[in-house]
Design goal:
Low-confidence stretches: none
Radius of gyration: 17 Å
Largest sheet: 5 strands, mixed
Structural class: alpha/beta
Strand order of the largest sheet: 3-4-6-5-7
Number of strands: 7
Order of helices and strands: EHHEHEHEHEHEHE
Distance between the termini: 33 Å
Oligomer: single chain
Strand content: 15-25%
Helix content: 25-40%
Mean pLDDT: 91
Number of helices: 7
Shape: globular
């Protein structure tokens, strides 16, 4: 709904049905009724299709695929972050939605600080009145290669709402060769 006519927007979507439903005005109005100008969809696995996009194409990448019980781990490996870095324009920002009921994904994304990223986290805790409107709590991570870019984002959105990502000692991050969810399991609902 924030897309202006001068903006370009691309969705990377693995499921063609999701794209069809998102454009069907009987179900959703964001693309057809709110976004100004065309919205492009690239069908297929996002990591594979994004890797074919030209370098430096995007000012903002938003990765939002981790809230269900199944986590597409290949989107959070060092190799995936390398793809994101090449696709971002200078001064670009990567934003990752890491809300998950069963896994603490923050250490996975925080490990990107070992790969040259600046990493900040922002959580939204839904209030009872918001929950009544079907809002839910969420956890977001912003990453940038340049600390000035990340500071600018924090200033624009309220610096007090962001904190540095928690780097877990001994957790090196995921790679295409090694990724385990065992150290990330939320063993109780209080974590």
């Amino acid at each position: 709904t924030y897309k202006r006519a001068e903006d370009s927007m691309t969705f990377f979507e693995i499921d063609p049905m999701v794209d069809r439903l998102s454009r069907d005005p009987r179900w959703f109005s964001y693309i057809n009724g709110c976004a100004q100008g065309p919205v492009r969809t690239v069908l297929g696995d996002a990591r594979l299709t994004m890797a074919r996009e030209p370098a430096g194409t995007y000012d903002l990448l938003v990765i939002d695929a981790f809230s269900s019980d199944a986590v597409p781990m290949h989107l959070l490996t060092k190799q995936a972050f390398d793809i994101y870095a090449r696709r971002l324009a200078p001064g670009g920002v990567l934003v990752v939605h890491i809300s998950n009921r069963f896994l603490d994904l923050e250490p996975v994304v925080a490990a990107a600080s070992n790969w040259g990223w600046q990493v900040a986290v922002r959580g939204y805790q839904a209030k009872p009145a918001d929950i009544a409107k079907s809002y839910s709590s969420s956890l977001w991570v912003a990453l940038a290669r340049d600390p000035v870019t990340l500071a600018r984002l924090q200033d624009a959105t309220g610096r007090a709402k962001w904190r540095l990502a928690r780097v877990r000692p001994g957790f090196a991050g995921w790679t295409d060769d090694h990724a385990s969810i065992l150290p990330l399991i939320k063993w109780s609902q209080t974590e």
